[in-house]
Design a protein that fits this description.
Elements: H1 9-13, H2 15-29, H3 36-45, H4 52-74, H5 78-89, H6 120-136, H7 140-154, H8 161-168, H9 170-175, H10 188-201, H11 205-229, H12 234-238, H13 240-253, H14 257-263, H15 268-284, H16 297-305
Length: about 300
């Protein structure tokens, strides 16, 4: 946990690793055939086209990027969770009206006799109740567990409920700057058995064991990543929002690095080191590391193709 820093600070520090881990692990639990190495190459290349496996992985990546930006501003809310679903299921549902919408039809879950609630008005009420109750839970790990199980059990959307539950479970962890939950090394069969225990018997024992095991794994993994990142640079932290603004001015508006730095009205002594930092970041900017600056992959790809002017 990272003291009193803004929400999602921890997630931002490990974002590149989290994007890969959580996108791949969650997609694999849905039967995705991509290996971890192939997923890393996909994200590095910035590819936009491909089959349903590619779409699923890229959707996870965009949904996680959305969370890191949205959670500090909005917290845990219904619209945030519904936008998560819309991002996760974009181009994977036959009806785009179902993206982020509480379902109005019957859903059947593979390999279980459990039949979720089917009344749309009741579903929406229960969906909002889950969020409100989760907001009252003071322990972020308990909040993550609560959201993960209850969204999977409620099945509020036409499809994509389990993957939405896995990402939504990270919201309380982001709010309290805890290590994220990426479902590393979770076996598909173990996951299915845990869910069936909840669906059919209201027995959370297997789910609890699985959650504890995978979260401990995540904590260890991201502690190593954080150690590699090292102590934050005070100058960079102080000017993080300025850097975001300046990079957007360069990439979106075509300003030079010096023009962008000057437009920010920084203290005189900070202009030169800030400009050096800005130029360094622009030289490293690609479509697979642009989320931290609130830029889309397409925007950065176009900027790079145009000659990477700054």
């Amino acid at each position: 946990m990272l003291g009193q820093q803004p929400a999602a600070t921890y997630a931002r520090k490990v974002l590149e690793q989290l994007l890969l881990d959580l996108s791949w692990s969650s997609s694999r639990l849905e039967g995705n055939r991509y290996s971890l190495l192939a997923t890393e190459e996909l994200f590095r290349s910035g590819a936009q086209d491909g089959d349903s496996d590619v779409v699923m992985l890229l959707n996870h990546k965009r949904a996680i990027e959305f969370m890191v930006d949205a959670v500090p501003e909005y917290g845990l809310t219904g619209p945030v969770v519904r936008n998560l679903h819309a991002l996760l299921m974009q181009d994977l549902l036959p009806d785009s009206d179902a993206l982020g919408a509480i379902r109005t039809k019957v859903v059947n879950i593979t390999d279980t006799v459990y039949l979720p609630t089917q009344v749309p008005s009741l579903l929406e009420e229960m969906f909002n109740a889950v969020i409100e109750r989760a907001r009252l839970i003071k322990n972020p790990i308990e909040g993550a567990f609560f959201l993960w199980l209850n969204f999977a059990y409620l099945q509020p959307f036409d499809d994509g409920n389990k993957r939405t539950s896995r990402l939504a479970a990270n919201i309380p962890l982001m709010l309290y700057n805890c290590a994220p939950l990426s479902f590393l090394d979770v076996d598909q069969q173990d996951y299915a058995h845990a869910m069936i225990g909840v669906y059919e018997l209201l027995d959370v024992s297997l789910a609890t064991e699985l959650f504890v095991r995978t979260y401990r794994r995540s904590v260890k993994k991201y502690a190593v990543v954080m150690e590699a990142v090292g102590a934050p640079d005070g100058f960079r932290v102080r000017h993080r929002e300025h850097l975001n603004d300046a990079i957007q001015r360069v990439v979106r508006e075509g300003q030079s690095a010096l023009e962008a730095a000057t437009a920010l009205t920084l203290p005189r002594e900070d202009v030169e080191p800030f400009t050096r930092m800005l130029v360094d970041e622009l030289s490293k900017l690609t479509s697979y590391n642009c989320a931290r600056f609130r830029l889309t992959m397409k925007t950065v790809e176009d900027w790079v193709k145009s000659g990477r002017r700054y």
